[in-house]
Specification:
Blueprint (H helix, E strand, L loop, with lengths): L4 H27 L4 H21 L2 H18 L5 H23 L8 H10 L18 H5 L7 H28 L2 H25 E3 L1 H4 L1 H12 L3 E7 L4 E3 H22 L3 H6 L5 E11 L2 E8 L6 H10 L9 H5 L22 H10 L3 E7 L3 E9 L4 E9 L2 E6 L3 E8 L4 E2 L4 E5 L2 E7 H4 L9 E9 L2 E6 L2 E9 L5 H4 L4 E6 L5 E5 L1 H23 L4
Parallel strand pairs: 2-4, 9-18, 13-15
Antiparallel strand pairs: 1-3, 4-5, 5-7, 6-7, 8-9, 8-16, 10-14, 11-12, 12-13, 14-15, 17-18
Length: about 550
């Protein structure tokens, strides 16, 4: 039997869904064998998966699903001990996942005979369950599930591109409407604008997926790594229903893997070490997600030994990248620059290894990463990530007659101050707002178009994580949703810009990269610090 391509896609999607349910159920069952509902979930999913395999004529997968079902049935009837079977059951799930992967590529299914024999040995002597014939119909649940239709990622991307073009065209029509001042045209364009906004919203919603689709992968990873490292670890998760653009979810997965591996390998102590410190033998890694404005906040927190901040500071001073009176937060940030005190690098991770990759990845998405740590109490990594990378709300600002876009999610407030309110500090300029000192950066200076301060000076106050700074511009213009387009090769070399957009007037507007503006804001201070450290060591 040859599986028609469109049916193959449906089979693969449904099979992967059942496989994920089975993994989560077995993880929960391993922790609490008395929860028979998880056992039933595995049996139901395997029965359905076996039916799909039989219908698609995937004989190897059908045999494996049947053997796995027999083991779960034996556990249910107390003819097999779950604790003795968990590892091989997970191996069976992994083989099913690998088979689905190769079938999705159009290759032949994997041979499962050896694993099937090992599973059959577990149930030897037990009553074998009836094998589901490929002629048997599937559950009527399939009819209900037709309310959800699998859609190729490429089609979602195409819809998004079309929505972006509609938005750009609408902006252009808005400009024409203002010029012609025709009531009928105005009414038509306004109605078109409403429809385009609705289309844009629904296309965006179709791309949004729960971050739990990534979170759920870590239960199994933590389970396997904790056994490998002989550690006892609880993984707690919260906020799995927070939705982000599919592209963002795909991009952050690798970063979370790095952070969780580091937490388990180097953050959490062994049960014996924890007992000596007065802690429970089980360590905890807490993975949470929440929303703030147009950002998702993801935290990876462990209750381990924490960073050795004094040792990191000593290493940082020796390398000339930090000064002796640096704050705890400044010292902790050094781990993203490869400053580490870990003497042993394991196969799983090395403290500091991979964290620079995490920072670069998240910042490439327009996000930020912060770390905080307390000795003997643990370490927390906080990621701030845009909900979507395609369409964002921005504030247009002007410098020397040119428009630039500032992502609205990064803006805390807009102020206009007199020239006398700008104070010249030792290393930077600043203003004081409600008793708080805000360092300033002149956008014109960064873009090589310096200009003397006017009597009245507009400032955009940017907040990124715990940091704030003011961006001095010539004028504050309007707010507008824009479509982000990638930069060409030449402009990409300038780190001040994250993308571009074509607005209704036909102008190309560059979008400021807030992450790199924060780095620039600190660059002069960091350089002077290194020079001061160098001078203080001369003659020793």
């Amino acid at each position: 039997m040859v599986v028609i391509k469109k049916h193959l896609e449906v089979f693969l999607v449904e099979s992967r869904q059942h496989l994920e349910l089975m993994n989560q159920a077995l993880l929960a069952l391993e922790k609490n064998p008395a929860r028979t509902e998880f056992l039933s979930q595995c049996l139901v999913s395997l029965h359905t998966l076996k039916g799909i395999a039989g219908t698609a004529n995937w004989n190897e997968m059908e045999s494996l699903a049947h053997a796995l079902e027999d083991v779960f049935d034996a556990v249910k009837n107390k003819k097999c001990v779950l604790e003795d079977s968990v590892d091989i059951l997970f191996q069976g799930f992994d083989m099913l996942a690998a088979s689905l992967e190769v079938l999705g590529k159009g290759d032949k299914e994997l041979v499962t005979k050896a694993l099937v024999e090992r599973l059959e040995n577990l149930t030897a002597g037990g009553k074998q369950a009836k094998r589901l014939s490929s002629a048997e119909p599937k559950s009527t649940q399939g009819i209900e599930r037709m309310q959800i239709v699998p859609v190729k990622v490429e089609r979602l991307d195409l819809l998004m591109n079309l929505a972006e073009e509609l938005l750009t065209t609408r902006l252009r029509l808005d400009q024409i409407k203002e010029t012609l001042d025709n009531p009928e045209l105005t009414a038509t364009v306004e109605n078109l604008g409403r429809l385009v906004t609705e289309i844009q919203f629904n296309v965006m919603q179709s791309r949004m997926v729960p971050i739990g689709s990534v979170f759920n992968l870590f239960n199994r990873m933590v389970r396997d790594l904790s056994k490998q490292k002989a550690k006892q670890v609880n993984l707690e998760m919260e906020g799995s229903d927070i939705e982000l653009d599919r592209t963002v979810v795909d991009e952050i997965g690798e970063s979370l893997v790095h952070l969780i591996r580091n937490a388990l390998d180097h953050g959490l102590e062994t049960p014996e070490e924890r007992k000596r410190s007065g802690k429970p033998p089980y360590g905890t890694i807490r993975l949470t997600a929440s929303r703030s404005k147009e950002l998702a906040i993801v935290e990876v927190k462990d209750d381990g030994a924490g960073l050795d901040l004094e040792a990191i500071k000593k290493a940082g001073v020796a390398r000339g990248v930090i000064r002796l009176d640096a704050t705890k937060a400044e010292v902790a940030e050094l781990i993203f620059a490869g400053v580490s005190t870990t003497k042993k690098v394991t196969k799983i991770s090395g403290r500091g290894i991979g964290l620079d990759i995490v920072k670069k990845k998240i910042e490439s998405l327009g996000g930020s990463v912060k770390v905080s740590s307390e000795p003997k109490r643990g370490t927390t990594f906080t990621l701030e990530i845009p909900l979507t990378l395609a369409i964002i709300r921005t504030l247009f600002v002007q410098v020397e007659g040119q428009k630039y876009a500032v992502p609205a999610a990064a803006i805390e407030r807009l102020v206009t101050v007199s020239r006398q309110d700008i104070k010249g500090m030792l290393e930077y300029e600043a203003i004081v707002l409600e008793g708080e000192e805000i360092p300033l950066t002149r956008l014109g200076d960064l873009l090589n178009v310096p200009k003397a301060l006017e009597e009245s000076q507009p400032i955009v106050v940017i907040k990124r994580g715990d940091e704030k700074f003011g961006l001095i511009v010539d004028a504050l213009l309007s707010t507008q949703e824009i479509v982000i387009k990638p930069l060409n090769r030449l402009i990409r070399q300038n780190n001040y810009f994250a993308g571009s957009s074509i607005i209704g007037s036909g102008e190309v507007v560059l979008i400021l990269d807030i992450a790199n503006l924060v780095i620039t804001k600190n660059r002069m201070t960091s350089t002077q610090r290194i020079e001061l450290i160098g001078q203080s060591t001369k003659g020793r």
